[in-house]
Amino acid sequence: MHRILTVIACLFIMLCIGSVYAWSIIASELIEHYHFHVFQSQILFGVLIAIFPLTMIFAGKLGKRIMHRYFGYISGILFLCGYTIASFSHGNFFILLLGIGLFAGTATGFGYWVALTTPVQWFPNRKGLVTGITAAGFGLGAVFLSQIAEILLVNGYTVLQLFKFIGIVYGLVIIALSTFIRQVPPVPGRAEPHAKASDFIRTKPFVKLFAGIFLGTFAGLLIIGSLRLIGGQYCISAHILILGVAFFAVANFLGRILWGLFSDHFGAGKSIVLALLFQSVAIASLALFPLNNALYLFLVVCTGFGFGGNFVLFAKKTAQLFGIHNLGTVYPHVFMGYAIAGIAGPLSGGALYDHFTSFTSAILLASLMSLAGGLLFLNEIRSVPHEHRA
Q1: pLDDT-based confidence at residue 70 (cuts at 50, 70, 90)
Q2: Under DSSP, is residue 235 helix (H, G, I), strand (E, B) or coil?
């Protein structure tokens, strides 16, 4: 029973901290009502994304000495504090950077680490599926927040009041759910060797994983951070733009589960190639075709589905190459590729838009980066005809 409750609790914690993927709604409000530049709005998003993998490395070092549920408590407290600080910012960029970038980013790191690494230890033979289920919560979080945001904003509430709601409600939910997290008890007399950073950080498999997740998430984060603004170029209605954020999140959620399930049968390497090539084509189509409501939503769904694969496939591949007992140590370092992408992707998109007053060049850059990530693993598929399931 403990393992089922742990998976459920971690899934819902991911739903809370994954609300950051509704950032394009918040960015639009900051630009419209607080005169932010697109670049500034993406700095906040990028710093949060960059901080949370750094926090995961720290959590990975402590995870063998501290009960995992305490990481959940820390996540909830910091989440509550961060968004509450942001709600009192009066639109001041630096206070928002402190509250959302630093506090909420750190909260996301602790929450993500415990929610990703703990459940998979209960199901060692279904790593792809279980990792997909828990990671899927992070992708789905934007669905709920996008709908809550639409209701509050349409009824006259400000984005600062939205921050207060997120901090109090989501923070308390994370704290409550953390009570149900349980760890796999150690086997008496069995000690698994644990990796140190110096053992793996310069190895070819690690560098390949690091580069792959950087390229794949650079592409997706560039699009996520400006999703509502991209649709706005084609005069798509405000309701459809918010709906697009929700559709992206649902597709991201399904992508994580289905790519994880696919990888359990066909291997993580082949799945990485297919997911990133799929994402590349979907992103390029946002710039190559004139968008109407239906096509916009369709391409958003395709992009979200491909993007979701990054978060289950690279985690599974890490466990496969370095051992499931080392996932909590090695994967946070791999995930630093995502941290760098969190800065580079959204800021590149914002800077290119501010320069060209169009997202076309930014979209094409994102597509090429995703394509490069897929091609990085193509040689592995050709040289390894069958990848053992692990």
Answers
A1: very high
A2: coil
